[in-house]
Amino acid sequence: MAVALRKISPWRFVRAVQVTHIPTLKLHMTGSMMGATVEQFNHAKSQMGTLKEDPGNEAKLKIYALFKQEDARQQYVDLIDSLLAAEGPAVAAQPTGSAATFDTLLVSTEDNITTIRLNRPQKKNAITVEMYNEVIKALEQAGKDDSVITVITGSGDFYCSGNDLTNFTKIPEGGIEQMAKDAGELLREFVKAFIDFPKPLVAVVNGPAVGVSVTLLGLFEIVYATERATFHTPFSQLGQSPEGCSSYTFPKIMGNAKASEMLLFNKKLSAVQACAQGLVTEVFPDSSFQTEVATRLKAYAKLPRNSLALSKQLIRGTEKERLHTVNDQEVERLVERWLSDECMQAIMSFFQAKAKL
Questions:
Q1: What is the C-alpha to C-alpha distance for residues 190 and 196, in angstroms, rounded to an integer?
Q2: How far is the C-alpha of 345 from the C-alpha of 353, rounded, in Å?
Q3: For residue 188, which of 127, 131, 280, 292 sits 20 to 30 Å off, Cα-Cα?
Q4: 3 state DSSP class of 18
């Protein structure tokens, strides 16, 4: 509930092995009198990044020379086309840093930073069953890639509006009991992916956050928020109970009284309040939020990768078992809640209230 193999040009690395033979490329030039259009030239530039094999120094020098000569666009296009043709049938380009494309996420890797962006802006990034599965998969891949840190953020004006409550309207053949059981197992695996994530996790909260997107913040190393962000966990309002290990992390972060205000009594915090209570690391003006955060992240991503990962293990390792236990307990309680008349009535009341708007 709720990336195409990372394309890194092999030219960026000095290989330790000696290349004994590079096949001679027979380059076909069209000799078009009109020459390549700007669109064709730009397309060829983008295609250059999809080459899987180093074409050799001779070809690279030709590419560089043609790239610098605007009157040689056609030759540039022809050269790139020839190189691609020599590699065999073209494969559709995938987003940088991805091993698979996703329907509900945008995942990319740049400057040693893997960014997982929730991408349902028209639905305020509400988390569907599909998005839960895709976040689990994206985290698994990010944990194994060459990035130093991983960032989670949202598209549009919202960070995340929590669970898409239409999840509760899709009843499987096994009935409500099966739905609750399946939802519980998916939530368990979802939270487990955050608990076990091996690298520093940074939340870039670009707008309001609700429900599970808030409770998970206790499992991040850093939480940056725009000044217009809010943090709301309306569990009792919907007849439910906390998840994301928040029943353990929130009292530890902000104390029992403040945690109870949020988790029991639905108090919504402003970004400044959340920062004062320790849930948020730092708050930035909305006008400069993205720029200032990007500067911080790029600096962190230059730090030694293994050092950061091992340090995180030391910090988190002592309580990892405890977090898994809490996750299991929270899921068990939630499954009970989802099957209760009280919860179903609260959810129906929510839908009825929305219908009147």
A1: 10
A2: 12
A3: 280
A4: coil
Provide DSSP, 277-333: TTS-SEEE-GGGHHHHHHHHHHHHTTS-HHHHHHHHHHHHHTTHHHHHHHHHHHHHH
Q: How far apart are CA 233 and CA 210, in angstroms?
A: 6
| Residue 346, pLDDT score | 85
Residue 205 CB contacts under 8 Å (≥ 6 apart), including other chains? 153, 154, 159, 217, 223, 224, 225, 226, 229, 271, 280
The predicted model gives 87-101 an average pLDDT of 47
The DSSP code for 72 is G
pTM as predicted: 0.72
Q: In whole angstroms, what is the distance from residue 247 CA to residue 330 CA?
A: 8
**Total residues found in the chain within this entry:** 357
Question: Which position has the token pair 């509760």?
Answer: 168
Burial class (CB in 10 A: 0-12, 13-18, 19+), 54: middle
- Distance between CA atoms of residues 227 and 108, nearest Å: 25
Q: What is the per-residue pLDDT across 303-343, written as a single tens digit (0 to 9) for each?
A: 999 999 999 999 998 999 999 999 999 999 999 999 999 98
Q: Are 323 and 246 in contact (CB under 8 A)?
A: no
pLDDT digits (tens, 9 = 90+) for 221-279: 999 999 999 999 999 998 999 999 999 999 999 999 999 999 999 999 999 999 999 99
The answer to whether residues 103 and 134 touch, using CB atoms and an 8 Å cutoff, is yes
pLDDT of residue 70: 43
